[in-house]
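Q: Can someone sanity-check these two? First one:
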Amino acid sequence: MNHLRRTTRRQTTSDVLLWAVLTILAAATGPDPTTEPGAFLLITGGRVLALAAAVLLGRPWPWAAAALITLVAPWDLGVGFATMDLSWWPGLGVTKIVPITSLTPAIIWYAYLAGRRVEETRLPLAAFLGVAAAGSGLVLASGGRPEDWIGVGTALVATYAAPYLLGVLRRRLGFQRARAQAAAEAQARLRERTRIAHDMHDSLGHDLALIAVRAAGLELSPGLTPAQVTAAGELREAAAEATERLRQIVGLLRDQGQSAPLDPVGEGVAELVERARASGMDVTLHQTGEPAPLAHRVVQEGLTNAAKHAPGAPVTVTAGPRRVSVANGAARGRAAAISGGTGLAALRERVRLAGGTLTAGPHGHGYELAVELPRAGEADPRPVGGPVPAAAPRSEHDQ
C-alpha cells in the first residue's frame, strides 16, 4: 500500500483533477443518462471506477494504468486519427489509421511514463501483449476485416509502442546526463585534490625543510648543553618525519594522470633565496635579467633538496631567462629526510610541458639541478608526438 500513497499534496491534487477530467470524457462518450439511466450507471459507472483505479495505480505502475484504461475506453474502429483509401490493393478499402477514443491521450501519457519510470521490461511487455490480444479480439468480433487489422496495428504502434520507446529514450538520456555530471564532479574533486597536494608540497614541504636546517644548525652550535643539543636533534628529526608524512599524504592526494600546474607561487626568486638565508642556509644568488617563468619552482625544489640532503653545504643559485640552476657542495651535516621522489618528478613534468629540459645529478663534490628553457616564441625542440625522454636515475636528492 505504500506504493499507492501520495507523498505530497500536489500529487494528490493533480491525480484527483486527472481522474475528474477522465471521468468527464468517459461520461461524454457513454450512454445518455436521461434516456438510458440503467446503461449509464452500468457502463459509465464502471468506467469511472476503472479510471479511478487506473489513476491510483498510475504513479507506481503506469503500464497497469495504460492497460486498464485501454480495457474501458469506448473503442470504435470506424473513428481514427486519419483515413486512407487502400482500395487499390485487392481486398482492402477505406481504412482508419490509428483508431482513437476520448481516452487515447491518457493511454499515451501512461505508456510514456511506463518507459520513463520503469526499468524492467517484462511487465510493460506483458501489458502490451494483453492490449494486443484485446485489440485482436475486437477485430475478430467486428468481422476480421483487413482494414480493422491495419487500424489496430497502427493504434498499437502510435498509442503504446512509440510513447513507451520515447519514455525509454528519455530515461536513458537522463541516466547518461547524471553519469556525465557525476564524472565532471569527480574530475573537479580530483583537480582540487591535486591542487592541494601541490600547494602542500611546494609551500609546506619547503618550510619544513628549512625548519630542519635551522634545527641542524642549532644542533651543531657550540656552547649548548647536552640537553639542548638533544632537544635540537629531536626537533630536526621531528621536522624530517613531518616532511615524510607530508610526502605520503601528497602521494594519496595527487592525481597521477594530471599534469602539474604551471603557475608559480607569489614571490620572486630573490625573496625565496633571502628566506632560505634567514633559515640558516649559505646561499649565493646570481641573477641575470628576468628569470624564466619556472625559475621560482626550480629554485624552490633545489633549495629544498639541498636543505634535506646536504645540510650546511653552500648553495649557488643561478637564475636567467633561459637557464636556472641550483648547485650545492658536499654536505656538512646529517641528512634531514629520506628520499621520496615526488618533487623532482613533478618538476620534470612542468619543465616538459614548458618545452624545456631538466638535468639533475652529481656535480663536483655535490649535486646540481639545472633547467634549460626555450626562448619566448621559440618552437618546442621535441618532435611532435615523439617519445618523452627517459627520466634520469634518481639520487638521494630526488624528493
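And here is the second, same format, sequence then C-alpha cells:
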Amino acid sequence: MQVSRSLFDEVMVPNYAPAPMIPVKGQGSRLWDQSGREYIDFAGGIAVNCLGHCHPALVSALKEQADKLWHLSNTMTNEPALQLAKALVDATFAEKVYFANSGAEANEAALKLARRWAKNEFGEQKSQIIAFKQGFHGRTFFTVTVGGQAAYSDGFGPKPADIVHAEYNNLDSVKALINDNTCAVMLEPLQGEGGIITPTAEFIQGVRALCDQHNALLIFDEVQSGVGRTGELYAYMGLGVTPDILTTAKALGGGFPIGAMLTTTAIAKHLVVGTHGSTYGGNPLACAVGLAAFNTVNSPAVLQGVKEREAVFREHLQALNAKYNIFTEIRGQGLLLGFALNEQYQGKARDFMLAAADEGLLMLVAGPNVVRMAPSLVIPLDDIHQGMALLDKAVAKLVAKA
C-alpha cells in the first residue's frame, strides 16, 4: 500500500494538521522523510526525545525486554516497573510512584489524589483547585479544564467544577483565590505551551508558602520540564521549592509512552486499592525503556551538557536577533527555549516554524508569538551550529517578505 500525506486526510480524525512530509527514519538529532530529505530536529517530539532518535541505550533496552515480557496488567507487578520506581524515588523527594501512559494521565491521577486526600483529611468542602491561565496539563476533560486555555476546554459541555485560575508569576492573584477549602495548587515550574515562562523566585516560593498556610497540596506538572530538560533532573531542584506531588512523562520514556506521578507516603496512602488504576500503567516494555532513559539522563555529564548547550543556543539566537531584529527576548531554561517575537512579527510564530521546515529544520511554537525549541539533551554541537544556520536562512527569507 502506498502511504502518503493524503492518506491521513482519508483515514484519520481531522483534529491534527500534520506537516506535508512523513518522516520514516531518525538517528540522533536527524530525521529523514519518505523522499530521503534530511532534517535537523530542534523539536524533539515536543520535548520527548531526550536522547534523540534511536539512542542505542533505549533500542537495546526495548529489544531485550521484547524477548522477555510485554504485558501483565496490574493484577501483578513486574521487575522493570519496580526498578524504575526505585530509581525515581532515589533521585527525588518522592517516596511513592504511580505509573500511567502519558502526562495527561499522570496529571489526572495527581488531581484525583489531591481531591481524595483533601476529602479524607478535611472533608468534602475542601475541593477547590487553583491552576494558572495559559497553563497546560493535558487533554482529558479534567486536565484540560485545569489547564487555563479556554480554546482547549470550551465546547464540550459542562466542565468539572471548583477549578479557578490565577495569573502566572502574580502572587497576589493566588492570594485572592486561595482559602481553607483549596485542596491543591497546580502549576508548571516552567510554563511550556503558555509561552515558555520562567517563574520568579518570589512567585514560586510564595505559592509554596500559601499552600502550607492553607493546608493545600502543591502539584508540579513537570511533564515537559522534567528529566533533564532544564539542566536539573527536575526543574523543582533548581527553584528551592519542593512540591507535594510531581508528574513526569514525555522525556521519561525517551519516545516510548510512559507517565508517572510521584508523591510522599503520607499522601499516597489515600489511593487505596480500587480508587484509581490503568491497564497499561507500569507496562514492562515502557518501564524498561524508561529506566534506560532516566539512568542515561541522570548523570552529571548529561545534565551539565544541557547547560552548556543552552549557552550555545543563546549565543546563536542573540547573533540572529542582532542581524534581523525579530524578537524581544529569549525565554526558558536548559533546552526548553523560545524566542518571543516583537511587535512587527506578532502572531507569526507558525510562519517561522514553517519557514524553518522548508530549510530542513524542525521547530515548534508555544502560542502564536513564541517560537520554541526542545531538542535532544545530547544534541551534537555541530547539529546546533548547522541548525541555526538553517534558521538564519529561513529568517532572512521571512524578513525579506515583511
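A (reply): Looked at the second one. The CA atoms of residues 349 and 402 lie 14 Å apart. Residues 300-324 form the longest helix (25 residues).
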